[in-house]
Specification:
This protein is α+β, with helices and mostly antiparallel strands. It has helices spanning 4-20, 27-43, 47-50, 71-115, 123-135, 162-169, 231-244; strands at 59-61, 68-70, 139-144, 175-178, 196-202, 212-218. The longest helix has 45 residues, at 71-115.
């Protein structure tokens, strides 16, 4: 009765014979015979345990070293490659965690500044100045409409066109993208320098109508893009809306 080495030897001999005849036999036959060897090894998981001496004799080509190495060396290479991939993955996770912590700390500092505002009229200026300072946004401004009469004539109550109001009403989330002559960009101090914008609608809860628009602008075209995530900007919009709602009728 043939043992496992004899069986593997027969399969290897068949594979070598087929390879030698590859000018006469289709390539698929060679592939099938090599697959048979692989299948045999998979069906006999204890083969190399029973014939451990073969492990040191099998030679593989290393894609890293460019020379023949033993099976054990190749396994170590594969293990090191997997470890390297995992290290990169862990480093990415740590970086994202640090970024999220930084954002959380900044958001807390900004919210605290809003709570410390001495009166309602100070809120709009505090809100935009702290956004600029804490989040390093080059230019920030806002406009509010339908607010209490005592705030009429303030800088934040300057007229906004019907088109802009309709646009704000239609925003279900912050708009981010290039400054393609957007009306609200003109509210910024140096509108000509703005390449990208984030427009945050201000509304009370789930109200369909907005009562204002918060504008963030940057000379960096890649700062606010149409494919960026807006979850954090939505949190800013919600917090700003809650803080500024006291200025309404």
């Amino acid at each position: 009765m043939l043992d496992s080495v004899d069986n593997l030897a027969i399969l290897c001999a068949r594979w070598r014979t087929t390879a030698a005849q590859q000018d006469f036999v289709p390539h698929m036959t060679t592939q099938l015979d090599s697959d048979s060897i692989a299948e045999y090894l998979l069906d006999h998981p204890h083969f190399f345990e029973e014939h451990a001496e073969l492990l040191g004799r099998i030679r593989l080509t290393s894609p890293l070293m460019g020379r023949a190495i033993s099976l054990q060396e190749r396994q170590m290479e594969i293990l090191r490659e997997k470890i390297k991939v995992q290290e990169i993955h862990v480093a990415d996770m740590l970086r994202h965690a640090q970024e999220n912590e930084d954002i959380s700390n900044k958001f807390q500092a900004w919210t605290r500044a809003l709570l410390l505002a001495r009166n309602d009229s100070d809120l709009p200026q505090t809100l935009i100045s702290q956004l600029q300072t804490i989040f390093d946004v080059p230019q920030v401004t806002l406009r509010l409409w339908n607010i209490h009469g005592r705030h009429e004539g303030q800088w934040f109550n300057m007229p906004a066109s019907d088109t802009t109001r309709t646009f704000a009403d239609g925003l279900s989330k912050p708009f981010c993208g290039a400054n393609n002559d957007i009306d609200a960009a003109g509210w910024l101090e140096d509108a000509a320098a703005i390449k990208s914008l984030a427009l945050l609608p201000l509304r009370v809860g789930a109200a369909p109508q907005a009562f204002g628009l918060l504008v963030l602008g940057s000379a960096d075209a890649s700062r606010f893009t149409d494919d960026m995530g807006t979850d954090f900007l939505s949190r800013i919009a919600e917090t700003a809306s809650a803080a500024l709602s006291c200025l309404q009728h």
